[in-house]
Amino acid sequence: MSDPATPQITLYTSAVCGYCVAAKNFFKSRNLAWKEVRIDTDPAEREKMVALARRTSVPQIFVGDVHVGGYDDLMALHRSGGFEPLLAHDGGPRE
Predict the structure, then answer these.
(1) Residue 13 phi/psi, 5° resolution?
(2) Residue 70, C-beta contacts closer than 8 angstroms, at least 6 positions apart
(3) Partners of 35 in beta bridges
(4) How many Cβ atoms sit within 10 Å of the Cβ of residue 44?
(5) According to the 3-state scheme, what is the secondary structure of the chain?
(6) Which of 13, 31, 78, 86 is the most buried (most CB within 10 A)?
(7) What angle do CA 46, 78, 13 make, to 5 degrees?
(8) What would the pLDDT profile of 23-52 be if each residue is shown by its tens digit?
(9) Which residues contact 91 (CB under 8 A, 6 or more apart)?
(10) What's the predicted TM-score (pTM) here?
(11) Per-domain residue ranges for the chain?
């Protein structure tokens, strides 16, 4: 599915989250693999997500070490042409 050189996509989710499903469908439509981390079943993972993203809502999406944000942020990044370059390399922090 994903090229080994492609940074890992990490998707923090919960069971009842329409935007989480939308993000997964977006990744599926592009044949991208992702690691799903359920914060509703693991309080330690929720704490980790909040520490990394400084947000409490889901989904929170990371490409490698780059925090993309939530679903709306992902779509805005995709529309602006910024998502594909993140997949090409682990580009470091994005501002």
Answers:
(1) -140, 175
(2) 19, 55, 57, 58, 59, 60, 61
(3) 10
(4) 8
(5) CCCCCCCCEEEEECCCCHHHHHHHHHHHHCCCCCEEEECCCCHHHHHHHHHHHCCCCCCEEEECCEEEECHHHHHHHHHCCCHHHHHHCCCCCCC
(6) 13
(7) 20
(8) 999 999 999 999 999 999 999 999 999 999
(9) 64, 66, 85
(10) 0.87
(11) 9-88
Query: What token pair was written down for 45?
Result: 């993972």
> Cα angle vertex 68, ends 47, 82, to 5°?
170
Q: Is the peptide bond before 59 cis (omega within 30 degrees of 0)?
A: yes
What pLDDT is recorded for position 4?
A: 60
The verdict on domain 9-88 having CATH code 3.40.30.10 is yes
Reading the block at residue 23, the tokens are: 């993000």
Q: Which two tokens stand for residue 89?
A: 């390399």
Tokens matching residue 88: 């090409």
Q: How many CB atoms lie within 10 A of CB 15?
A: 10
